[in-house]
Specification:
The chain is an alpha/beta fold. It has 2 domains: about 1-125, Nitrogenase molybdenum iron protein domain (Rossmann fold); about 145-275, Rossmann fold, CATH 3.40.50.1980. The chain has 12 helices and 12 strands. About 40% of the residues are buried. Belongs to the bacterial solute-binding protein 8 family.
Length: about 280
């Protein structure tokens, strides 16, 4: 079976049983399609699999981090197929394909996680299942939007709080795209500028994150400490969303790092739950 990839057509085995998925989107998509990989990378900013996926792969081998793949660990997992992340450089691809057939998704529009999911599906021979998943996500988002009253919409922004301050996540990323599908208007401050997020903002410029609703994330303890300190500042209390009680703390892995069908379902779960509680 041949699959189109960033490095040309690659012959992959039919129904591979030992798959290594390098990255959250590859792991998320593989699991969503009913295949349990034998190896993966630790999550961004962490030393384990993203918590929202961990219970689905309790015994999976970690073969590196987002920053560095351990080739010896990949080989030790004895993969029949390696699903690499979009943007994997040629040198690393060559090293991986020496271990097993390796699929690197073709370049796609920034934030287009669906394209990577479709490539994973093609490599696993599960294209039809992937289309059903993606159609279901879009339909559910539209159903949520249809259940909202006209006065229930407003501006929204997704913010990750880091040790150096808050960054506004791009409107091109999965959470903001889903928020838009469910009826929100994404804050102009999140407009796509070619980067996944803004530079960290100082407390003096904290007003830039303001919106009718703020979805707030952290990825590690340093970010949590910085957020706790910021909450004590008058500039934080002046935010419109803070004054109206419309700041929602959400899972940092799901909302600011991951992408894939399972992450999309988690984001929609959060949107539905938080709006019903409002």
């Amino acid at each position: 079976m041949s699959v189109r990839t960033a490095y040309g057509a690659v012959e992959v085995p039919a129904a591979p049983r030992r798959v290594v998925a390098l990255g959250d989107t590859a792991l998320d998509s593989t699991l969503a399609l009913g295949v349990e990989p034998v190896g993966t990378l630790s999550s961004r900013g962490g030393n384990a699999v993203s918590p929202y996926l961990a219970e689905k792969v309790p015994g999976i081998a970690l073969v590196g981090t987002v920053a560095e793949t351990n080739l010896e660990a990949v080989a030790a997992a004895r993969p029949e197929l390696i699903l690499a992340a979009s943007g994997t450089p040629r040198e690393q691809y060559d090293a991986l394909k020496a271990i097993a057939p390796t699929v690197v998704p073709e370049p796609a529009r920034f934030g287009d996680w669906e394209s990577e999911t479709r490539t994973v599906a093609a490599a696993l021979g599960k294209e039809a299942a992937a289309e059903r998943l993606l159609t279901g996500i879009e339909q559910r988002a539209e159903d949520i939007a249809g259940g909202r009253s006209a006065d229930g919409t407003g501006t929204a922004v997704v913010v990750r709080w880091m040790a150096t301050g808050p960054v506004i996540l791009s409107s091109a990323l999965m959470p903001s795209r889903l928020l838009k599908l469910t009826g929100d208007r994404i804050s102009p401050a999140a407009a796509f500028t070619g980067k996944p997020h803004t530079d960290p903002l100082s407390l003096e410029n904290l007003g830039e994150i303001d919106a009718d609703r703020i979805y707030l994330t952290t990825l590690n303890a340093d970010g949590e400490k910085a957020l706790a300190a910021a909450k004590a500042q008058p500039a934080f209390a002046r935010l419109r969303a803070v004054r109206t009680g419309d700041v929602d703390v959400v899972d940092g892995d799901v909302w600011s790092s991951a992408a894939g069908p399972l992450a999309a379902a988690e984001v929609l779960d959060d949107i539905e739950r938080l709006r019903s509680a409002a």
